[in-house]
């Protein structure tokens, strides 16, 4: 039996995704998590840096380079670089809370008793979440564009925006990166059946463990390539390809690499997160509340 047959067909997954999407949009957690990133991304990535430059906190010529990165032509790389690692906590929390609360409230048991198909349930959740992330990415990008245009006006710079191709590529990269972080949150929620536990483990990983692992692998001979399989370096590679400055450090964007390989790594993480989530749900008894 094919995967499509086991999940009730593509139409069944789409119908389930529509139901989950409606439920997600009615939850305050969705608006809080997405709204926090929509505000925090442009604030820390643009406003704070501009204030530091304006107050003389960065000496020349570095100040001019930082300011150039805040203007509209540099927007594709600047916005994408904000996903390493600043977007990760917000979007991981989004996935962990939306799915983890299903266990806390006991609604997973109700859904599975209704026999929608366990793999179909996970695929529908994932698809709905990807749509929510896409909306958050567009909103954050729009706010960032407005802030960047304001900075350009204050500095008397031209009104030239980024090339259309680079803009679309940046949106796609941000959507992919954000979706992967959210799906990792979903995986942790299914594994721990608790939003709090999923958030704790996820934040420790993206903010502490992955950075430590990157730093360790960078100094060990012959294993530096392993860090390219981590989420942070993969997203950072895309940001560098879009114009963000490369930084040879264990925290932040990183030195860059092959963007095609980075896309493959991120897609691999997405497939792994959804696949393991489906496996966990299929092999468990119907969970009870708590």
Automatic annotation (TrEMBL):
The keyword Plastid does not apply. Keywords: Membrane, Transmembrane, Transmembrane helix. This is ABC transporter permease subunit. The chain crosses the membrane at residues 31-53, 83-100, 121-154, 166-189, 196-220, 260-281. It comes from Pseudonocardia humida.
